[in-house]
Records
---
Amino acid sequence: MKVVLDSNILVSAIEFGGKPDKILKHIISRKVVGYISEDIINEVLRILDRKFAYLPVRLVQIRNFLRAAFVVVIIGSIPRASRDPKDDHILAITNEQKIDFIITGDKDLLVLRQYRNVPIITVNDFLQKYET
């Protein structure tokens, strides 16, 4: 199974654990293949820095971790598909790779329900499908 985690899911997993962390652990154990872009990595690091005041050394560790745990995808063109253009880079990964799910908590993405036949679902929806 191949997934893209939105930055909000990654921040939640790193900072709070819980259900988002369950998905991250599936990716770490290679039960699920996670795809990420440099845009997503940079967004995660920006949020951790601004909202949670992570030290620079910790941000470097997280960057290295994300690059090691996920398949980093080079994005070509970015579609104009979401009602918030800042979210379109998440969708762009599906232009480069065959993805099974985009997992997010972002309402601007969830409202689409799918992009290029890739379901856009919540953490709970994914865990229900994956763990049953």
---
Amino acid sequence: MRDAAVTTATYTGVFHGRPDQVSRARREVARYLGGCPASDDAALIVSELATNAVQHSRSRHGLFTVHSELFPTYAWIEVSDAGGTWDPVDTSKDGGRGLGIVAALAAEWGVDGDARGRTIWARLQW
């Protein structure tokens, strides 16, 4: 998965669980990944995962963390939230497509943690 020995850039930011912080998180990651071939996709993934943290976790009353690392051939993105009940979303209604977008853009992705705290990660390859 990740090879820390060849990391070229790392970013970690902590944000309040408010909707206005989603765009801030997206801008910060886009700035950090600047010339990376997958920076636009990374920013979109951060936006989707940060939105989930604000809307669907206990982070809406607290904080969420965004972490990214840039490697020579891929970018690693993580959004950690305060956990809570994991409810599958009905994608036939408006919304609920965020993880589908992540899956479509990422070479691989996953969820670690439980109701006490959760990290969703994605690896973008080029």
---
Amino acid sequence: MDKLKKILLIFAGFICVAIGTIGVVMPLVPTTPFLLLAALCFAKGSERFHAWFTGLPLYKKHLEGFATTRSMTIKTKLAILIPVTVMLFIIGLLSGSLHLRIFITFLLTIKYIYFIFGIKTTK
């Protein structure tokens, strides 16, 4: 079972890398969250794939600073926050469910609090 779990984590890591790579060229697809998830999957699944992933230019450009200093530039923060906020806002507008709207509002509030106070901003 442990081997199956590692294989699934590696597979999920590659899926996240693919989606993150698509996000580099498509404005509404967020890059950084998928690359963070890929890094987590590879770290838990395989040291070899984790070393490969952390050597990629994609990782170095979008995540290395965050991974080493736990900080992001304002541009990176906005690149993560704006597309997700827009998508959730549209879902909330199109939804007739009050419970879903409350949940989305709560989710966005927590996310903004975390990005403003939990992640240091660098220049």
